[in-house]
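Weekly puzzle thread! Below is a chain. First person to post its structure in token form gets bragging rights.
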Amino acid sequence: MTKPLLLRGGRVIDPSQRLDETGDVLIVDGVVEAVGARVSNQSAGRDGLETIDCAGLVVSPGFIDVHCHLREPGREEVETIATGARAAAAGGFAAVCAMPNTDPVTDNQAAVGFIIRQASRANAARVYPIGAISVGQKGEALAEFGEMVAAGAVAVSDDGKPVASAHLMRTALEYARTFGIPVADHCEEPTLAYGGAMNEGVVSARLGLKGIPSEAEEIMAIRDILLARRTGGHIHLCHMSTRGSVELIRWGKDRGIAVTAEVCPHHLSLTEDAVDGYNTNAKMNPPLRSADDVDALQQAVRDGTIDLIATDHAPHHYDEKEREFADAPNGIIGLETALAVNITWLVTPGIVDLPLLIERMACAPARVFKLPGGTLRRGTQADVTVFDPDAEWTVEPSRFKSKGRNTPYAGRTMRGRTRCTIVGGSIVHRAEA
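Winning reply:
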């Protein structure tokens, strides 16, 4: 049993209960026992009680990242489940979902079980495995969804590789529906995107780099939406990046199709201009797009067309990124910068307020992926994030818990920092004073 914990005097924001007030949160035996203005009086004298002064801080349900790459097994020199889980906790994430593009691929119950065991040993953020859609992520034969779900998988995805076969995607949606799990797809039409290194446009032409047109994403997005309509399955569209995708998702939702979508902090904050100077830390897939796309995505977060924000945390070794731009791998790390990027580019300009940001980072991920957490309701597991929305800090990758250093935000000063992350009533991260 964990010792009782009192979070005193913070701004308690829980969109799942429409709660936004100054008060206390009492945690006993790993669950939320009470939330309110006079909880501290009720808990006085409780044996072993630890009190954390949260005055000036926000206390919210623990953030959940439904899309990250922890690299283990196979690339432990780049990241491990333990280092990734600690990085997640440092970023305020009480739980993350690990994508299956490991080596070997997470496409069976043994691989799912391995991830769960490693996460348990890490004693940091919770890690929920996502199983592969196809065996070996080859896009040929379906993996055994039932066995993976029984072992603990919460969704299926071939992320990193688009499911090119419409027939396979249809079958996956039908099969996943019987288990009540989402199919998360990397929307990319491979023949249009082939050889591309960044967004197709004026900047790619000036830099002499082959571009990836927005249609490469949008063609697959509408295909998936139509297949979800046909099958009744739940399609979850990963890392959306274009205005056109937003319009297609809105079209699907207006017709009652079971489509949800995520966007990453980098697609909400940076444009293709970040690639100037052939900056490989700004190379990702889908690529950074235009300012018009960024604006559309920000508005989609505000109006709910985009359901949630996910990091797509993708660590790479320094040497891998120190290549010619076209040859460098895609991806950036994001677990330890997500909160600050979202506050700096969404909250500070007034695009969303803090309750809506917490909804997109904690409540919606739990709801969409049917995960525990995402609430401070009495009797629920005590996964809690405490953060300072006004704290300014400069990004120094060398101080990250992640093994990765590949971030385009290095040297930038941003607002918003995690002070404490609590998982199941235990403090798994506490910021240095």
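Puzzle host: Confirmed. Bonus trivia for everyone else. The CA atoms of residues 147 and 312 lie 26 Å apart.
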